[in-house]
Amino acid sequence: MVLLAQALYVKRKTPRLPGAAGPTEGLVPGDGEPFRLAVLGESTVDGVGAADHEEALTGCLARELARDGRAVRWQAVGRTGANARVTRAELVPLVRPADLVVVALGVNDTIELRTAPAYRRDLLRLVLDLRGRLGPVDVLLAGVPPMSRFPALPRPLRDVLAARSTALDRAAATLERIPGVRHLPMDPALLDPAAFASDRFHPGPAGYARWAGTLARAVIS
């Protein structure tokens, strides 16, 4: 009962921020044929907490990948509230041909108390569907954010969701056994209070920039 009461309280009191405005695709100018980046997932890909996609996750990641002077063409395919099943069924068909697909999911599956085996199965099917559409594209699975760091969540609800988010992230990491699939756990240090938007649940521009930097280093390394 305590957890249900806390969940209802958080839902009622947390400000509902819109997704990022403006185009969901763009080009960072540079040399040569553009590197094609697609980012797929939940509200963080929808850009909640940022004014537009240029300062949200996808735009920040595209600029990081363009630091060596190459051109990067980017596409953000996100939906607030989407879990892995919805993303697979409704968003994967919207992804354009890409050299790399970054998948950012897990928070909604955590909130829905999805089990780790079920989440892994959903992600596996998502990767297979992506490759069925795009060919042998590289996939980077962004780690499920550690929900122990979310300021909007009171205890003990925070502790329960933290344990679930950790379990889902470990399940996602097992997909690294698939050639061309990489998993990058999120460093909890990225989620200090300054990283969050005004709702204290989603990243703000600073949080997106930090996260994009770690993802880009994983891609480039």
Automatic annotation (TrEMBL):
One short Pfam name that applies is: Lipase_GDSL_2
- InterPro entries reported in the protein's UniProt record: SGNH_hydro, SGNH_hydro_sf
Record-level Gene Ontology MF annotations: hydrolase activity
Q: Which UniProt keywords apply?
A: Hydrolase
- Residues forming coiled coils: none
Domain (SGNH hydrolase-type esterase): give its ranges: 39-210
Query: What is the designated name of this protein?
Result: SGNH/GDSL hydrolase family protein
- The protein's organism comes out as Amycolatopsis plumensis
Q: What is the lineage of its organism?
A: Bacteria, Bacillati, Actinomycetota, Actinomycetes, Pseudonocardiales
